[in-house]
């Protein structure tokens, strides 16, 4: 047997799409962080290098002495990063510190800085800094050589810029991811709609309609529809075969039973010994019992088939019960037996299939006639609140309460002689359940007999 996974196909698609979107979002956020970091470094490095170049250009030699007048524009440029601190050092041709922080190390080789400004990361006074080294050649009669400007700036401003750019990127990626998931959900719903349409087409079909499905579906679902149609064709063949078998069996069984009963009735009992007469009576009883069971089996199959195909309609319970009563009570009933039918003046209407409901009431009456009644039988139609009842009361010993749940089963004995009720109660119970009702019993009392009743909800036209 194939296991059933109750997980939604839509949920599966959304989980997988969400996982892919999450991976994509993580990749985009990582790329955004790298881009923000690179952009912040590039922007602030340009400012740092520009300031260093302005400072190195301010170096002059006057009267053989090297002097530096630090330009205010350089510090104004660096002041754009208001939270950052600035450290600088001016190194003369002889390697002496002309001004600034003497402990600000110049770890760049001379050849590297001579070609172009050199940028590097470092730490100064416990703070992370970005350091640029700029060299300038000095050619003077008194002094000549290379002078260096070492300029350091803390990285708080650029870190803030990285955080700001990354946060904006995260918000943008989150919005885009949400839109992507929403679009995926709409697309998944729309894409899965053919499956819902296929299910609706199957559920709305008449139970007796075994023609192949003719629905427009996407190419991916076509194999599934083809398999369903193949199954429908096979099922139609099996149903037709079964119906033909039941019809043939009913005919083949009823015909010899009728012939057997006719042959038994033609036997002349005058010349038979008492023992032979007893055997003949047993043959008659068994033939009658076999005929009744056969009819019940066929009627049970008919009831099940009708509830799969027949449409329930409002009908008069009074009329159906009266017809069942007339069909159930035989003409050859004991003349001393008292049999009656009562129905209210109010016409009680229920939703039912007429043949199945009549069969259920007929079985209740037939069971009372054969297994319960001794000399008295009453069939009544009554109303109790919003329920309609068909009551069958007899003066027999009744069914013990402990056996009430069992007698609804097939071929269960409900009498002391060991005879079974066949399918009578089973048919009635199936019909009652299908119509939203039930079969019940009431014990025999000093003033009333044993009662079997069929309870059904009344039809309310205004509520429909």
Radius of gyration: 51 Å
Q: Report mean pLDDT, rounded to a whole number.
A: 81
Number of helices: 9
Q: Strand order across the biggest sheet? A: 4-3-7-6-5
Query: What's the level 1 CATH class of the largest domain?
Result: Alpha Beta
Q: Please count the beta strands (DSSP E, at least 2 residues each).
A: 14
How much β-strand is present in the residues?
A: 15-25%
- Characterize the biggest β-sheet: 5 strands, antiparallel
Straight-line distance between termini = 41 Å
Helix content estimate: 40-55%
CATH superfamily of the largest domain: Histidine kinase-like ATPase, C-terminal domain
The CATH topology of the largest domain comes to: Heat Shock Protein 90
Which class best fits the helix and strand makeup? alpha+beta
Any low-confidence stretches, pLDDT <50, length ≥5?
Answer: none
Q: Architecture of the largest domain, according to CATH?
A: 2-Layer Sandwich
N-to-C SSE string, H for helix and E for strand: HEEHEEHEEEHHHEHEEHEEHEE
Q: Tell me, what's the shape?
A: rod-shaped
What's the number of domains?
3
Transmembrane segments: 169-188
Main location: membrane
Catalytic activity: ATP + protein L-histidine = ADP + protein N-phospho-L-histidine
Subcellular location: Membrane
């Amino acid at each position: 047997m194939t296991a059933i996974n109750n997980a939604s196909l839509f949920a599966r698609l959304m989980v997988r799409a969400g996982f892919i979107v999450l991976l994509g979002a993580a990749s985009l956020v990582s790329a955004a962080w790298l881009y923000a970091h690179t952009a912040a470094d590039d922007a602030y490095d340009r400012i740092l290098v520009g300031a260093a170049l302005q400072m190195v250009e301010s170096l002059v030699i006057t009267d053989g002495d090297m002097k530096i007048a630090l330009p205010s524009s350089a510090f104004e440029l660096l002041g754009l990063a208001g939270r950052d601190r600035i450290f600088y050092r001016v190194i003369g041709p002889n390697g002496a510190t002309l001004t600034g922080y003497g402990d600000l190390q110049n770890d760049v080789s001379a050849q590297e800085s001579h070609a172009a400004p050199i940028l590097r990361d470092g730490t100064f006074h416990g703070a992370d800094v970005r350091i640029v080294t700029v060299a300038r050649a000095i050619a003077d009669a008194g002094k000549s050589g290379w002078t260096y400007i070492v300029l350091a700036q803390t990285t708080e401003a650029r870190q803030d810029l990285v955080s700001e750019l990354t946060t904006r990127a995260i918000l943008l990626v989150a919005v885009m991811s949400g839109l992507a998931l929403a679009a995926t959900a709409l697309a998944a719903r729309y894409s899965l709609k053919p499956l819902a349409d296929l299910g609706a087409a199957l559920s709305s079909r008449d139970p007796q309609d075994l023609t192949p499905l003719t629905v427009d579906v996407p190419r991916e679902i076509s194999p599934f529809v083809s398999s369903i149609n193949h199954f429908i064709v096979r099922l139609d063949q099996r149903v037709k075969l079964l119906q033909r078998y039941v019809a043939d069996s009913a005919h083949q069984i009823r015909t010899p039973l009728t012939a057997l009963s006719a042959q038994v009735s033609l036997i002349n009992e005058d010349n038979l010994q008492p023992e032979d007469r007893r055997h003949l009576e047993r043959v008659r009883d068994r033939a009658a019992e076999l005929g009744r069971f056969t009819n019940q089996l066929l009627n049970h199959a008919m009831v099940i088939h009708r509830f799969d195909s027949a449409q329930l309609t409002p009908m008069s319970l009074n009329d159906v019960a009266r017809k069942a009563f007339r069909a159930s009570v035989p003409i050859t009933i004991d003349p001393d037996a008292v049999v009656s039918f009562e129905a209210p003046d109010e016409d009680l209407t229920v939703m039912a299939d007429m043949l199945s409901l009549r069969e259920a009431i007929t079985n209740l009456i037939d069971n009372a006639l054969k297994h319960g009644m001794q000399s008295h039988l009453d069939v009544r139609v009554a109303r109790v609140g919003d329920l309609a009842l068909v009551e069958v009361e007899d003066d027999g010993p009744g069914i013990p309460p402990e056996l009430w749940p069992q007698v609804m089963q097939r071929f269960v004995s409900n009498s002391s002689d060991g005879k079974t009720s066949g399918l009578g109660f089973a048919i009635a119970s199936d019909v009652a359940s299908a119509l939203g009702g039930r079969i019940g019993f009431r014990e025999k009392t000093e003033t009333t007999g044993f009662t079997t009743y069929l309870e059904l909800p009344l039809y309310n036209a205004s509520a429909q």
